[in-house]
TrEMBL record:
<dbReference type="InterPro" id="IPR044298">
    <property type="entry name" value="MIG/MutY"/>
</dbReference>
<feature type="domain" description="HhH-GPD">
    <location>
        <begin position="54"/>
        <end position="206"/>
    </location>
</feature>
<dbReference type="GO" id="GO:0032357">
    <property type="term" value="F:oxidized purine DNA binding"/>
</dbReference>
<dbReference type="GO" id="GO:0034039">
    <property type="term" value="F:8-oxo-7,8-dihydroguanine DNA N-glycosylase activity"/>
</dbReference>
<dbReference type="GO" id="GO:0006284">
    <property type="term" value="P:base-excision repair"/>
</dbReference>
<keyword id="KW-0411">Iron-sulfur</keyword>
<dbReference type="GO" id="GO:0051539">
    <property type="term" value="F:4 iron, 4 sulfur cluster binding"/>
</dbReference>
<dbReference type="GO" id="GO:0005634">
    <property type="term" value="C:nucleus"/>
</dbReference>
<comment type="function">
    <text>Involved in oxidative DNA damage repair. Initiates repair of A*oxoG to C*G by removing the inappropriately paired adenine base from the DNA backbone. Possesses both adenine and 2-OH-A DNA glycosylase activities.</text>
</comment>
<keyword id="KW-0004">4Fe-4S</keyword>
<dbReference type="InterPro" id="IPR023170">
    <property type="entry name" value="HhH_base_excis_C"/>
</dbReference>
<dbReference type="GO" id="GO:0005739">
    <property type="term" value="C:mitochondrion"/>
</dbReference>
<keyword id="KW-0227">DNA damage</keyword>
<dbReference type="GO" id="GO:0000701">
    <property type="term" value="F:purine-specific mismatch base pair DNA N-glycosylase activity"/>
</dbReference>
<dbReference type="Pfam" id="PF14815">
    <property type="entry name" value="NUDIX_4"/>
</dbReference>
<keyword id="KW-0378">Hydrolase</keyword>
<dbReference type="Pfam" id="PF00633">
    <property type="entry name" value="HHH"/>
</dbReference>
Amino acid sequence: HVFSDPAEVEALRGNLLAWYDRCKRDLPWRALVRGDCGNWGPALLPAVWVSEIMLQQTQVATVIDYYNRWMQKWPTLQALAQASLEEVNELWAGLGYYSRGKRLQEAARKVVFELAGQMPRTAEDLQKLLPGVGRYTAGAIASISYGQATGVVDGNVIRVLCRLRCIGADSSSSAVIDRLWDMANVLVDRSRPGDFNQALMELGATVCVPKAPLCRECPVKQHCQAWRRKLFGNPPKVPDVEDCGVGDCPLCPPATEPWDSSLGVTNFPRKAAKKPPRAMRTATCVLERRGCHGAPEYLIVQRPSSGLLAGLWEFPSLPLAQDLQEEREREELADHLQAWTGRPVAGKDLRFIGEVIHIFSHIHQTYVVYSLPLDGDVTLAPALSPCRWVTEDGFHASAVSTAMKKVWRA
Ligand code: SF4
C-alpha cells in the first residue's frame, strides 16, 4: 500500500503533471493564482483560500459565481476584514454551511489586526493561526499560493490514492487518513507542489470519479493497483510484509467484504455505513402585512449568532417535538407568534400551506409552513431577536438560507 520505489514516484509525478498541463479546467481562481503569483502582495486575499473554503461540500459549478462576486467585493484582506458579518452572510446566502463565510472573515480580521497584515505562509502556521483553516485548506494554500512542498488530502485525493494502492479499509478511519497524508507528502512534486496537488484533485474530479471512472484515459493507470487487479484479477504484489500482513492487514478490505470483481476499481475506497440524519420538525409562519405603499411585506427574524444557520434571517419559526398532533402544533406556533405581533394569535387562524423538506448534512428537517395575513397597523412588540419587515425583493436580498427560499416558494 505504499510508494516505495522512487523511480515510480518520479514517473507518476511526471505523468500526472503532463496530463494536468494539457487537460486542466479553466477555473477563475486558477487564473488569479497564475496572474498574481509573480508579485503577490501581502494585502491581497489569496484566491485559493476563498475558493477552497467555498469548495468544501459545494460543487465547482455552484461556487464559480459566488467566488467571482466575493473577490470583486473583497479583493484584499483589509476589505474583507472591514466588511460586516451581515454583508458576508448576504453574499454567502444559498451556498450552505454558513459558518465557513463567517470564519473566513474572522481569519482575515486576525491577519489584518493581529498579524500586521502578513498571511502565514506554511501549512503548519496557517492551520495553527487562522480560524476555519484545517489541515487540508492549510496544505492547499501553502502549496498553491506559497509553493511549499506539502501534500493535501480531500475527498477526491482519498478516492484516487485508495485506488492507486488498493486501500479497502474504512477510508474515514483515522488509521487510513493518516496513511493517506503520509502518502500525499511522499508523492507531492518538489518543484511544482501546487500544480501537483491540484492535478491529483482534478484527476479525482474528472477521471477517477466515484461511479464510472475513465480508467482507459487515466494518465496514471500504469501505477494503479486497482486497475491492474481489475485487468488481471490478481491481488497486488505485497511490497512489505509489515505494511500488508497476511490476513489482518489494517489497510486491505476486511475479510468479511473481500474484493468484488463485479465492482472493479470501485471496490475502493470503502466507508463505514453513515449514521442516518436526525429527523427534526419546525413550524414556520409567513406573517404578511400591507406596507406603506400597499405592497405586501413579510416579517423575518434573525437566528442566534451560533449554531445551525447562525445569524441568518428566517420567517418566525419554532422547533417542534416529534409526533405532535396538528392542532397542538398550531397552538404552539400561535403562542410563539404573539411575541412578534404583540397581540393574541389563534391557532385556527393560521393557514396551512404545506410541508417543505430540506436536508442539512446531519439533519432531515421538515418545515411545517403556515401563513397569516395581518390587518391594520401592526406594531412589532419588542422581541428577543432582531426582526424586520421586508418586501419580496428585500427577502431575496437578505441573508436567508436555501431552506427558507424553499419555504418562500411553497
Ligand atoms: Fe482511478 Fe482508474 Fe486511474 Fe486507477 S486507473 S487512478 S482507478 S481512473
